[in-house]
Amino acid sequence: LLSLLYSADTVEDEMEMATVRHRPEALELLEAQSKFTKKELQILYRGFKNECPSGVVNEETFKEIYSQFFPQGDSTTYAHFLFNAFDTDHNGSVSFEDFVMGLSILLRGTVQEKLNWAFNLYDINKDGYITKEEMLDIMKAIYDMMGKCTYPVLKEDAPRQHVETFFQ
């Protein structure tokens, strides 16, 4: 069933990683639950496994990977919020399944699914409400991540101004 995903592994790799590797759910199940084809899932898995050979990614590794996309700024805080949104079972790691289900919503979900996902991202304390403070934390994290792409152009209190405008 998963032989296509694991065909590149040697027997030695299998024995070495047997105790620490997370095995993804069957492709057919992920295909049924997500909006990706089996071929797309195989490609995603190869990339995921290349970056995270154990089959799961912890928050520090997630932050390191994410920072490569935003070298001009500090993506640490935003990556923390994003990691928590992908870590749906709140176990401190993102499995391939977590990753696929998040991407499935972000890339191919309905408007409602995307709104729910974004709400979950912004609702930092998971109490069912987005407070002004939570939105400000996310906005600051976005501005920090964008770094010099935003700060020379915008005033330092721009994140707060955006949040105030939204809450009017």
Automatic annotation (TrEMBL):
Gene Ontology annotations of biological process type: regulation of potassium ion transmembrane transport
Sequence ranges assigned to domain EF-hand in this UniProt record: 74-109, 110-145
One GO CC term on file: peroxisome
Subcellular location: Cell membrane; Cytoplasm; Peroxisome
GO terms for MF: calcium ion binding; potassium channel activity; potassium channel regulator activity
Keywords: Calcium, Cell membrane, Cytoplasm, Ion channel, Ion transport, Lipoprotein, Membrane, Metal-binding, Myristate, Peroxisome, Phosphoprotein, Potassium, Potassium channel, Potassium transport, Repeat, Transport, Voltage-gated channel
Protein name: Kv channel-interacting protein 4
Gene: Kcnip4
